[in-house]
């Protein structure tokens, strides 16, 4: 009985976790924003890279693409690091949280489409 309960809980929780993590509808795709400046932090990891940048007098969390996609499209870990000046284009969260999902990143004269 207990094993059945645990199995059912796992089956119910897995889709919820996936939707929570990949809830792209939480971002307002009708209002693209472009932000430029130095990165305050970068994490090159999976399931996707992350960074921080100052925008509107706040530190914003930046959701990048999976590292394999960024590398395949020409953006390597050594191209973006703390202090690197970039231009980011993406979408802010609808709920006002200081977080944006990035569609495009420009480093120097190189622009990489992330989605």
Descriptive overview:
- With 115 residues, this protein is of the alpha+beta class.
- It is 23% helix and 44% strand.
- It is globular, with a radius of gyration of 17 Å.
- The protein has one domain (27-113): Nucleic acid-binding proteins (OB fold (Dihydrolipoamide Acetyltransferase, E2P)), CATH 2.40.50.140.
- Residues 5-20 have low confidence and may be disordered.
- It has a five-stranded mixed beta barrel.
- The termini are far apart.
- It has helices at residues 2-21, 67-72; strands spanning 27-43, 50-55, 58-63, 85-93, 99-107, 110-113.
- Pfam families: DUF6152 (PF19649).
- It comes from Sphingomonas spermidinifaciens.
Core attributes:
115 residues, OB fold (Dihydrolipoamide Acetyltransferase, E2P), 44% strand, DUF6152, DUF5666 domain-containing protein, signal
